[in-house]
Specification:
The chain is of the alpha/beta class. It is built from eight helices and seven strands, in the order ααββααβααβαββαβ. The two termini are 15 Å apart. The chain binds zinc ion. The site of zinc ion has 8 residues, from helix 2.
């Protein structure tokens, strides 16, 4: 992350903001959008059987708020969205299992200047040291078909150090095809770690193993 959270938070306070969910004036998140982000955890499974608990459906105010966080620099919303993410995390695994944030691609990190998943974890008060890194720049995922996207992802992440004996719950913001979580799980296992489950803030309302256009996995 390039800018410290404190700086981003301070900027969000100083600059006038609109509701990240619906655009209503002068609120970080208006009351009706606050209701929309109350966690309703749903569990699905990755193709490798790993359970994935998602707090919210990626739609409406939820989708808007997440896009504001990820693509429009609205880091002030991270603390609000951290609440449902924490609920998903609690439902996914016991506290003894270590949360592991799926890192942004290098291109996304360069573009945003911050890692939304890291911000969400910090907002949730979760200690999750960085365990994975990208091995090479990922080609634009959005321009690829589902099969090419899956292939492109293979080997895209690796552990920074051995994870032998570690038990982890993967954490990501939005699960779409599940390809990113599968790749993260593969990288953790390759380093000797165990993946107990995954938790995401939101999921697209379709089967996780199915491809979709406009993936937000990165
Ligand atoms: Zn609103």
């Amino acid at each position: 992350m390039n800018l410290p959270d404190a700086v981003l938070d301070a900027l969000a306070v100083l600059l006038p903001v609109d509701c990240a969910g619906c655009g209503a004036a002068d609120r970080s998140l208006c009351p009706s959008c606050a209701v929309a982000i109350v966690a309703r955890p749903v569990t699905r499974r990755l193709d490798d059987g790993t359970p994935v608990v998602s707090a919210l459906e990626y739609d409406g105010a939820v989708r808007s708020a997440i896009l504001q966080l990820k693509e429009h620099g609205r880091t002030d919303v991270a603390r609000r969205l951290a609440v449902p993410l924490r609920a998903a995390l609690r439902a996914a695994a016991p506290r003894s299992v270590q949360p592991l944030g799926v890192p942004s691609s290098r291109a996304a990190l360069r573009r945003r200047g911050y890692d939304p998943v890291a911000l969400l974890l910090r907002g949730a008060g979760v200690r999750a040291p960085r365990q994975l890194t990208t091995t090479r720049p990922s080609r634009q995922q959005k321009s690829l078909g589902a099969q090419a996207r899956a292939t492109n992802r293979d080997g895209y992440l690796r552990a920074i150090h051995p994870l032998t004996g570690g038990r982890f719950v993967l954490v990501d913001d939005v699960s779409t095809t599940g390809a990113t979580l599968l790749e993260a799980a593969r990288a953790v296992r390759a380093a000797g770690g165990e993946v107990v489950a995954a938790a995401t803030l939101a999921h697209t309302p379709r089967r996780i193993s199915h491809a979709s256009e406009g993936s937000l996995d990165s």
